[in-house]
């Protein structure tokens, strides 16, 4: 026979006891059924009921297998209980409720006591603070009344005002800020400061009143609004009048000296007012009337000093300045060096694109023309044209300057070739070579392209000293091979082409000497064990090409050395001679 799962049945009394209806608090209504009703319901459903019941009504759970005697014990207790026992149980139940309520009220009262104690302490602290503030206020009122009397009598001084408020600030800082005494201090100081700066010319006497305002700057620290208002009403009128009436755009130093001296005291808003409403209009007017042909004062000398203060605002003037300069450069000749001194300070100020355009359009073509006219003549060298060009090396972009120097080096190598072909005095050739090397600006001398040119000349000199046939450099073809392809690719000369060719030990030594600005060439007529003796700076060396070894003469013997040791030997020789 199929059995249903065992169910846990909660059993409740069959009916409420009549004497429990009074005084019982109603709970949220739920649907309850009695054990008999549950039994009848199960029987109507035709199901077998497992008579296992859990009685949870007492302090302990009872397990029962039948519902018949479920309430038997309770009924017996009811029958046995008397009205007196019922009343006692009722009284006990009410007593328990009363005790719970009393405990709840007691806990609330204790919490109330703690809260009131905290409130008491807070009120006590507030009273102490207010008492202190009251004492502070009485002292402040006394000081303000005293200063007011002195003001009415005309005996009030800036020193007494500043000292009084300094004392108040030091003793009652919180109250000083709370009650806004900075504003009251400013009201006392304003008429006195106005008299101090009345008739003052800050461009003539920039240090006047500086210490006085420093005191008030510190006194009003933390209240920038009050200080700014005090400055604008007491100091700024004199600055505005002097700058407007006496400042000259071409002589910025007086106003700059004032601004530098007062840097920590001039409020930002006041500074911007001076720059925007006084300085910029004067500069714009001066630039509009500027004529480079007639001016004796370079424009950068009176515009650039304002760069730290005006910065990007000056760019509105750059277009006018550049146009005026370019108009003059149409008729300029490189012999006039004033163009360089006027233009070069603007290299880092103009934007790079505008600067490059100016150089390419107006300067580089004329320098190229001069260099084409320049003649290299060891017997009677005229260097004026070379100096005109060299001056611009720091202003012109490097790759453009190298184009100009190519013209010079073409002529230079041609003359060197002809001179070596005529069997010259090699010491004269060396001196001539070193002289030209010294003429090249440092920023160009360190360039690989220029070093390549110098190496060509040095190789020609070495060939002549060794009695070999001097190879004609093939000037234009050589340059096209080594420089133009690299320039087209954006490479530095020496980064490819000639730099990638395998070099002999002799060539490697020559390059190393060049890198260290030392002369490397054969000593004519001097041999050692069948090897040509070379001069490396001030040291005599021989090269064993077969064994790839380098020997240097140290004192009275020849020693095997490295290139680094060779450079150190030369430095030591120079120090000993010095």
From TrEMBL:
Keywords: Coiled coil. This is GCF C-terminal domain-containing protein. GO terms for cellular component: U2-type post-mRNA release spliceosomal complex. Residues 158-416 form the GCF C-terminal domain. The lineage of its organism: Eukaryota, Viridiplantae, Streptophyta, Embryophyta, Tracheophyta. InterPro entries: GCFC_dom, TFP11/STIP/Ntr1. It comes from the Eukaryota. Residues 106-140 form a coiled coil. It holds the Pfam family GCFC. GO terms for biological process: spliceosomal complex disassembly.
